[in-house]
Write a structure and sequence with these properties.
Length: about 350
């Protein structure tokens, strides 16, 4: 349930409500809004006497949260959240967040070349996997910690925020040491223990939608991270599996207005995993921004034909430059900047 405080409620009133909520064995989540503060009370409410909360000083009303997800829902927090992307940028503000880079970190020269190119093109984040989830265990699975060191060096040189995948609980501490944002991949969206472990990290989390997950399951996965104590969750649509074969995945952009209605969390679109084909990426970038997405996660490689992973869906830095130019016009039409 949500306890909506009166607009003139005092700090003491709020503290008292928090204590009451805790006394019923519920977890509190205080959200300070522009107009008034609300206290979300999360947990099993069967034995809770809501009248005790309703009559507490400074309380306006108590309303149930209808959505299955609670702290990720718009009901609890009507204003959109701005989530840090490293120290210099946010996702969810007026400015769109362009995160670009290779699918995988392959070598120092490869990463630095691409990092400088995407920085020049206007990106604010650098993506690149050091730990790669691979269907085929005999394929390149990433450089591991060496890849993380290279990402940190690229950040040092470019100022870009580093977004990189964490695949297991055992990696959370290590990846958090190097990354600005922990990426949870599509295959791990249902790994509830990993979600909770990332909830303990100080780093923002970019959560990819499971390729067969519903929107509700996606937001419940985000809920696990927030419940772990980490409010900084960025949602990422990367395409779902359908019967269609002309694309690697089907990219359902309708999720953007749906997320905006259901949640305060920002959403970025990954048109690279979302289509599997480089030629489709610019069009899907344009469409995503027109639909209201808060940013893009794009695979870029200076030599896509030589890429160790996902070359077919990687655009070149030249195409990224053109795409960002096109996006600028669309962004202006929907009240955003790049
Ligand atoms: C990736 O971003 O390279 C990746 C492996 O993503 P996903 O988890 O969406 O497949
Ligand atoms: Mn990839």
């Amino acid at each position: 349930m949500i306890v909506v405080m009166q607009s003139d409620a005092t700090e003491n009133d709020i503290e008292h409500v928090v204590e009451l909520v805790r006394s019923f064995g519920l977890r509190d989540h205080v959200i300070v809004g522009t107009d008034r503060t609300v206290v979300a009370a999360i947990g099993d409410k069967r034995d809770v006497d809501t009248s005790a909360i309703e009559t507490a000083p400074g309380v306006d009303r108590v309303v149930p949260i209808l959505a299955p997800y609670k702290v990720a829902s718009r009901e609890v927090k009507p204003e959109p959240s701005e989530i840090p992307l490293g120290p210099h940028a946010v996702v969810g503000g007026t400015r769109l967040a362009i995160i670009a880079g290779p699918c995988s970190v392959e070598s120092r020269s490869q990463l630095l070349e691409i990092a400088h190119a995407v920085r020049e093109a206007g990106a604010v984040g650098l993506r690149g996997g050091a730990f790669k989830p691979r269907t085929d265990p005999y394929k390149f699975r990433g450089l591991g910690e060496q890849g993380l060191e290279l990402l940190a060096e690229a950040r040092e040189q470019t100022g870009l925020a580093v977004v990189t995948e964490v695949m297991s609980i055992a990696q959370v501490e290590l990846v958090s040491r190097y990354a600005d944002v922990l990426q949870i991949g599509t295959r791990n969206m249902h790994n509830f223990n990993l979600l909770s472990a990332c909830g303990q990290s100080e780093r923002s989390v970019l959560l990819k939608r499971g390729w067969s997950a519903t929107l509700s399951e996606f937001l419940l996965a985000a809920e696990y991270i927030i419940n772990g104590g980490n409010h900084n969750v960025i949602l990422c649509e990367r395409g779902i599996r359908t019967h269609e074969t002309y694309v690697r995945n089907t990219l359902p952009l309708a999720i953007v207005p749906a997320v905006k209605r259901e949640s305060h969390l920002p959403i970025v679109i990954d048109p690279s995993q979302g289509t599997g084909h480089a030629y489709m990426v610019p069009a899907m970038c344009r469409a995503a921004i027109a639909a209201g997405a808060d940013g893009l996660l794009i695979e870029v490689h200076h030599e896509p034909e030589r890429a160790l992973t996902d070359g077919a869906q990687s655009i070149t830095p030249e195409v990224l430059v053109r795409t960002i130019q096109e996006i600028k016009q669309i962004a202006a039409a929907v009240g955003r900047t790049v």
